[in-house]
Amino acid sequence: xxxxxxxxxxxxxxxxxxxxxxxxxxxxxxxxxxxxxxxxxxxxxxxxxxxxxxxxxxxxxxxxxxxxxxxxxxxxxxxxxxxxxxxxxxxxxxxxxxxxxxxxxxxxxxxxxxxxxxxxxxxxxxxxxxxxxxxxxxxxxxxxxxxxxxxxxxxxxxxxxxxxxxxxxxxxxxxxxxxxxxxxxxxxxxxxxxxxxxxxxxxxxxxxxxxxxxxxxxxxxxxxxxxxxxxxxxxxxxxxxxxxxxxxxxxxxxxxxxxxxxxxxxxxxxxxxxxxxxxxxxxxxxxxxxxxxxxxxxxxxxxxxxxxxxxxxxxxxxxxxxxxxxxxxxxxxxxxxxxxxxxxxxxxxxxxxxxxxxxxxxxxxxxxxxxxxxxxxxxxxxxxxxxxxxxxxxxxxxxxxxxxxxxxxxxxxxxxxxxxxxxxxxxxxxxxxxxxxxxxxxxxxxxxxxxxxxxxxxxxxxxxxxxxxxxxxxxxxxxxxxxxxxxxxxxxxxxxxxxxxxxxxxxxxxxxxxxxxxxxxxxxxxxxxxxxxxxxxxxxxxxxxxxxxxxxxxxxxxxxxxxxxxxxxxxxxxxxxxxxxxxxxxxxxxxxxxxxxxxxxxxxxxxxxxxxxxxxxxxxxxxxxxxxxxxxxxxxxxxxxxxxxxxxxxxxxxxxxxxxxxxxxxxxxxxxxxxxxxxxxxxxxxxxxxxxxxxxxxxxxx
Length: 702
What we know:
two-stranded antiparallel sheet; 3% strand; mainly alpha; 28 helices
């Protein structure tokens, strides 16, 4: 046995050993009730497994060469191409950051889940979490479409039950069911796309699928199936509705996995099966157009609904929708540039998309864990119940502040660099010769800029209402800092987010190698000069986020020294910032989520169609909200009376509720016709199915 550190099999077996051991410990905790600390031990083993996976990816990118192209062939008896596992630049890139997320979330939930008490089965939670961890690993390295779908479904099932963890809370089961329905619709689209490819290759091996000769129009159809199939997991519009339902229902560690891991797996699916396998060339213009249109709607609706919610986890879930639109923008632009022969720009656009993806994964998991810290102490994720938490939870407040700056795209952190780079990619579209593609690219760029501005407003609301001012509830008054292990888990993504901005030159070769696998061009040397990251076409813009990062730090430090040493301010009275420096008597007189977002509600009234809460209960209203609410966690619906407002759920009302009514009518009709209790009718059904099967199998020539 080769024990070399450069042997990928060693890391593969170590990952299996640690993860299997964690699953076994949690399983023993299920059947042996007296086994103590099984939850802690299993999570420590999951941390070891995650660290093993990340370590190999780091070594592979550092050493390069054959380590970025290792294939394992298992189970030669397996049909349809055999079990093939591949470690290449794309899979190693996703393993690198996804299992970094698994590492610190495993650490985080050791103490977080303990606070949930006896309402949940911790051993079952750890078992399902371990199953998800293993399934995600094989989703990323599986190089057979059939095997991929097996682990994709295992990942979906385990995530469904993890969302159901707090099943005792009203609405949780419905939220989990909604997630399952949407993601399974996506799975059916993926399977259908794979079956179409199988017809041209007679194989599910990705090598065979990639080399198959497929007509252009078939590629366009299959890519669209993959876009919406994997997009259901990403949360693209209109398949996004499960995110604002599942996140509030889930434990915060699970929310971090849903937003940082599962959505990233959806992006991986589009890149692996859409870009790598289909490698569209002549079809790239139409496919890129479809992606950019979906990206525009996803960013627009995601950020507008993000700005109106009062629930911190719903806000973060809509932020995820917005960020998925940003990632799709880079993918669509890359296909446009490929179609027009601008291969360097095509690779740069993909690098921008990958950079946005890894940024989102880190700062969003940080924010969901931060929301979990607040929930841990207050028992709520309603921002109107918070206030003044910064004085009671200063470490959590500081770490969330870093996440908020990153997520809002405030310079010089990584969120700003990500949005800046994607805007560069979009506006470099003037190199395209086609007029309509230019117009679409610049239009999407405008929506990207709009979404960035609205996102800043939403994150100001999140931080201001939560951490500043006076406490609005007794729980907020009693809040205290969480256990240190939970905050250590937040420190890791905070440091990673900072490093992605200030030391981007360390990550650029990784992004470039992943893009090279798809577009066969490495732009690392073109965009990396003296460890300073600049655009591919430096004549368009020579600004550098790395320069900006360090110059900003030096400037702020200089201003602070100037203020303290030269100006020497006199002692002054400092009080609650969010109340205008006044210690007001009634904390509920402070600005609320409703008041803070009112200007946007007026500005985008055509989309929001705002109204008073009284209309919700009024059965003569033009919007009959008296229908049973199928979206229990949605911030649009208010079932109580009192002062307030609602935001019209445009997509849910016009798309999903008619579908629900339609299927309810179909099911009632079919139930009456097909299940009427007649034995003769049931025998006829059996005969009919047998006859139809015989006709298809025997009589139709092949």
